[in-house]
TrEMBL record:
Record's keyword terms, sorted: Isomerase, Lyase, Multifunctional enzyme, Oxidoreductase
Domain 3-hydroxyacyl-CoA dehydrogenase C-terminal: 89-187
Protein name: 3-hydroxyacyl-CoA dehydrogenase
GO cellular component: peroxisome
One Pfam family here: 3HCDH
One GO-annotated biological process of the protein: fatty acid beta-oxidation
Superkingdom of origin organism: Eukaryota
Amino acid sequence: KAVFAALDRACKPGALLCSNTSTLDIDEIAAATSRADAVCGTHFFSPAHVMPLLENVRGAKASGRTLATVMALGKKLRKKTVLVGNCFGFVGNRCLEGYVREANYLLEEGCLPVQVDAPLRAFGMAMGPLQMSDLAGNDIGYSIRRDLGLGAHAAAEGAERYYGALADKLVERGRLGQKAKKGWYDYSAGRAPVDDAEVAALIEEHSAAAGIARRSIGAEEVLDRCLLPLVNEGFKCVEEGVAQRESDVDMVYLFGYGWPRYLGGPLYWARHIRAGGLPRVVADLHSYGKVHSGIAHW
């Protein structure tokens, strides 16, 4: 807020003030300025010179001129530009949250990192959620969880089952991801992920300390538990008007998150390609919700 208030004072009238954040409230940022109508989100995806997606985020007071300008900017930059509403994570990272949470729960319950990532790569994703976290930097999620006041204490206070305990331990051991040459995987030999016995031991110790009996988890369950929360949240985004149409959610995932193009995007896949279509999606969400009660994304 202080940065945008200073920019508001320094920039000429009519200049747009845009934020690349995906976890801060665009309307709160706009409220710190005298030009809320000229403030919006322009969420580029890392690395910005490679990734084609741009999420433009409309604040509550953003003018038509502001939105038209940032959409034209995206076109000029040759980005695949999608206009989305303002909420935590916007469309892409909001839908991603359940996907990443389930990856962490699967580790606690019986999987090792490769057993989570491999089925998703076989499905067609560019990389699995744990390799993706290593690429982005595990410390980013750690910082977001701290900013939100999340932590192991949350479970003791009766809140939703905390999903970040293992990831927190990983960061606290200095395993930040590729940039540290170690994260969920070992990268000492290069950028290719290599299984790490230290991580396997950490996961197994964590499960034992938490009183979780580890079990064998098949690829189908891994896919369901990671992808169905993502799909469910995508439909919620459309229902709430955060995304204007189903194809906008699909565009975000095709061009920002490595969703396989031949599967059309998560909502297209759920509606038209996955066996059983939407009726089966709903039935499976209810089924997993009964087993994993108390977890909001089910």
